[in-house]
Amino acid sequence: LGFVFNGRDVCKNSEEIPTVEKTKLENIKSRYTVIGAVGGLIKRKGFDQLVRVLQKDENLFLVLIGDGDEKENLFNLAKNLNVDQRCWFAGYKKNPLGYYHYFDIYGMTSYAEGFPLVLIESAAMKVPAICSDRELFRELFTNDEVSYFKLDDTESLYKSILNIKNNHDRFANNLHSKYTHNFNADKMATGYLDIYTN
């Protein structure tokens, strides 16, 4: 009969983040290119790749929002690589959307995923994304919408980041357009109605 991609309406007027964290993020953003990621801190998410790539460029800062079994390992990795001063493990946030405003790049580094709702949030918030080169993501986004990299290849990941930095507005606009036309709740509802009707 066909299939319908998940959709989501993202409220850009998300709840205000705490003032102390807002001040911290404003300071970070004024000095660095901020790579942000949201999710459970587990191995499958591949967040260690974002920690490792910080060694390639002193102008990069990583903000990780979430909690999980890998938090201590990620913290220790950052410390061992001497990049811990450019990492902020912000912990679990009930509504993380307000933090996206401070991301220059979203880091989608998963080895495996279901439908990537955080990437849809990134698209809705007009934050361009780097993305692990997996079949699921390829089904959803083109090379003009996200910048792909090879898993566990720090050089490939860094080139993907530079690709976004050098073409920031183009990627941001293309990804946001994809969300607007394909991945909002109205589009999902219409798709299901069409299948049901047919």
Blueprint of the fold:
Blueprint: H1 19-31, E1 33-38, H2 48-53, E2 60-65, H3 71-80, E3 87-91, H4 97-100, E4 105-108, H5 117-124, E5 129-132, H6 135-140, E6 147-149, H7 154-166, H8 168-182, H9 185-197
Parallel strand pairs: 1-2, 1-4, 2-3, 4-5, 5-6
Helix pairs in contact: 5-8
Structure commentary:
Helix content is 44%, strand content 14%. By secondary structure, the chain is an alpha/beta fold. A six-stranded parallel beta sheet has the order 3-2-1-4-5-6, with helices on both faces. Helix 5 (117-124) crosses helix 8. Residues 1-8 and 185-197 have low confidence and may be disordered.
Feature tags:
single chain, 198 residues, alpha/beta, six-stranded parallel sheet
Low-confidence stretches: 1-8, 185-197
Strand content: 5-15%
Distance between the termini: 8 Å
The count of strands amounts to 6
- Largest sheet: spatial strand order: 3-2-1-4-5-6
Q: Helix segment count?
A: 9
Class by SSE composition: alpha/beta
Shape: globular
- Rg computed from alpha carbons, rounded to a whole number of angstroms: 17 Å
Quick gist of this model?
By secondary structure, the protein is of the alpha/beta class. Helix content is 44%, strand content 14%. The chain has helices spanning 19-31, 48-53, 71-80, 97-100, 117-124, 135-140, 154-166, 168-182, 185-197; strands at 33-38, 60-65, 87-91, 105-108, 129-132, 147-149.
